[in-house]
């Protein structure tokens, strides 16, 4: 896709967004738009009421982590960074009524300040005139959280596979010392550009990398997300009674699968009861150690391992 066509597409999706509209990311997780070689995925979220578009495995994992948080309001993935000054990402949100959040500074101005060469492209107008204009950068995951007093705030997550990727572009590829210096300078300045952009509106940026997440957590998030929104046809009172017995089984150190088998024999549709167990874990109604692999045919470990006691700092409005 040509830069002008991509620019027009991004602006059509992002420039007129208002809270209450369905959010459309700058780049969709489809082969014709995603970067070549990327591992794309579309996550159908019950909380968002739409599919979230992840362009990499790390984005998928951290999107699932955010979606699991009880205080999450929304996520804007692949959000455009405005080249020129624009409103705060939360401007117009129903929960910010009566407040006046600060605007963001444009990336062009920030790039000039920090000595970063902003990406430009040649735009041809309808009259045939050609001019160079800035091409918008994109973030990874902008998450919106609800504070204890009910006021929303945003946190910008910039996502990589490894921590060193924040400091050097194409860090894993062989290169000459001169090219390595160029890629390090580019990586550091691009990271600073995004941090300064959101900081201008009081939004914290957090660097999150997949190498900081335990494999068991990744596996559990994948397992639970697949079933988190499956509708259950059993009566709600029956399901609540089942959940209570599951909690008793966990406290007694018994495998919860046996409770699902018993209910399945009596009421039918055993798989629905198994699904209910996973959904209770996803919705934090059943506390387990999230750093052990979830096996319903074994006793759950309930000793520590709370997901957001470990990763809670990633969601905080200010750095701890």
Compose a concise summary of this entry.
The protein is of the alpha+beta class. 36% of the residues lie in helices and 16% in strands. It contains nine helices and ten strands.
CATH class of the largest domain: Alpha Beta
Assign the CATH architecture of the largest domain.
3-Layer(aba) Sandwich
Q: Please report which band the strand proportion falls in: under 5%, 5-15%, 15-25%, 25-35%, 35-45% or over 45%.
A: 15-25%
The total tally of domains equals: 2
Largest beta sheet: what is the strand line-up?
Answer: 3-8-9-10
Explain what the structure shows.
The chain is of the alpha+beta class and 320 residues long. The chain folds into two domains: 3-213, 3-Layer(aba) Sandwich (Trna Endonuclease, Chain: A, domain 1); 215-314. Helix content is 36%, strand content 16%. The protein has helices at residues 3-14, 57-68, 107-114, 177-199, 215-227, 236-252, 257-267, 270-282, 307-311; strands at residues 41-45, 50-54, 72-77, 80-81, 120-124, 130-134, 137-138, 141-146, 152-160, 204-209. Helix 6 crosses helix 8 (270-282). The radius of gyration is 23 Å and the shape is elongated. The two termini are 42 Å apart. The model has no long low-confidence stretch (mean pLDDT 94).
